[in-house]
Amino acid sequence: MGCGKTTQSRILAEKLGAVWTKEPGGDEISDEVRRVVQGMKFEIEMDAVCEQYLYAAGRAQTLRRVVKPVLDKAGIVVADRSVYTSMAYQGFGRGLGIERVLKINEEAVDGIWPDLVIWLDTDLETALARTRDQSGDKFERMDKKFF
Q1: Cβ pair 81, 63 in contact under 8 A
Q2: Long-range contact list for 14-20, CB < 8 A, 24+ apart?
Q3: What is the DSSP letter of 20?
Q4: If we measure between CA atoms, which residue out of 89, 103, 6 comes closest to residue 46?
Q5: Which of 36, 58, 113, 135 has the most C-beta neighbours closer than 10 Å?
Q6: Residue 48: is its pLDDT beyond 90?
Q7: Domains in the chain, start-ordered, CATH in brackets?
Q8: The predicted structure's pLDDT at residue 60
Q9: φ, ψ at 122 (rounded to 5°)
């Protein structure tokens, strides 16, 4: 969050002539999953397990409908986020633990793992200063303790 993942991943995809996608997102179904899990405000807090299953559902859709067809043709895909994001946000941030997140995502991922992961490291204060979209992504409204 706030370290330029989306900007840098788009630039990389353009330079490589690759297909760019995001998780969740990439087609109309996974884009709707993204809207529900990240963008909608509810009167109650979404349960962490529910949140993780929604992310896994969006991931399953993106990997099968966007990523796999490109890989099957020996193409390159650059994705803004992956299952590793769930390990951080739901595994640690929401307290589900890595093993539980992996178990929930096992069928969603179905063996489609990134060949390379690039980690952009930004200090928390800088990241939070860049991403205070109170009307957008719910994670941008989280406090420092979450991160």
Answers
A1: no
A2: 16/76, 16/78, 17/76, 18/75, 18/76, 18/77, 18/78, 19/66, 19/67, 19/70, 19/75, 19/76, 19/77, 19/78, 20/77, 20/78, 20/79, 20/80
A3: E
A4: 89
A5: 58
A6: yes
A7: 5-139 (3.40.50.300)
A8: 97
A9: -135, 140
Q: 82 pLDDT exceeds 90?
A: yes
Place of tokens 């991160």: 147
Q: Which residue has the tokens 């997140």?
A: 101
At 109, the amino acid letter reads: V
Q: Around Cβ 86, how many Cβ atoms within 10 Å?
A: 25
Q: Tokens in use for 27?
A: 């087609």
Judged on CB neighbours under 10 Å (0-12, 13-18, 19+), 130 is middle
Q: Predicted confidence band at 136 (pLDDT cuts at 50, 70, 90)?
A: low
Does residue 40 or residue 60 have the better pLDDT? 60
CA atoms within 13 A on the CB side of 19: 19
Structure tokens at 128: 């939070």
